[in-house]
Amino acid sequence: MKSKTITLAIETSCDETACAIMENGRTILANEVYTQIEIHQAFGGVVPEVASRNHLEKISEIIDKALSDAGVGFKDIDHIAVTYGPGLVGALLVGLSTAKALSFALDIPLVAVNHIEGHIAANYIAHKTLEPPFVCLIVSGGHTHLVEVQDYTKFNVIGRTRDDAAGEAFDKVSRTLGLGYPGGPLIDKLAKEGNKAAIPFPKGMMDQDNLDFSFSGLKSAVLNYLNSAKMKNETIKVEDVCASFQHAVVETLKGKTEMALKKTGSRKLVLAGGVAANSSLRKELSGIEGIEFYYPPLDLCTDNAAMIGCAGYYHYLEGNFGTLETNAVPNLKIGM
Question: How far apart are CA 280 and CA 239, in angstroms?
């Protein structure tokens, strides 16, 4: 194998159209991301059909820009890595179809990447010495998982949400409060000005001896609190609601993570996913004693293609290639 392996990676699982050029998996040569946030803000969330149409319009431009930024041509690419799930099926198909076409035209391997594995791999880019095994808490708009990362391509899910993902709860509470989309950064900002002890919101499943999560009850509790206050003509301090809600989420995530570290005996913790950008979550997890704690920079927390390229590189080394028959899997699981 060459001393320098160049990966072209594509990510279109939701509302970011992204392409990255990676060297040996962990070095970013280019990382282009076109976000559709402003488009979907008008709808209060991502509209799948709108996302797919925008991917179609932007993907060629983003690939060309990434190649230009990296100073490489198609002839320099050793393999194509692409997200094939989980995500919005129409959005996934845009990226996957493009990747298949490039793989066929350039006669180079196609590597299909699990989006959740990509979030974990973002930490390998940020922390050059990080190696498995470790426990990873993955928290995003669609996923909340506790995973034993046994090797670069081997994963054992030891906990997951039974209903809403944490990021989804942030978005729904933000929408209920009239704050907008995406909810995570907006609530995080307002929570800094509020009292986290003002409202005793529930911490789902913390009384159970397992590593699973539940956030639907918390979401309902926020809604009930707001409706009750409105009926009683009580003043609602949005900052206190945000702080109290975020505190309940973070304490739940931290509590289950501490249980996972104890059950596995691991002393190495990694945080991944869009909600990894939450300042309170980073602070609380960094306070767990006796562990090594890793998390990615903000630009690698949200969806991007660099993380897909990194994850794809390790599958490439193992010869885990896709084919022209590889299809999008919107409900793809990790560790299977």
Answer: 14
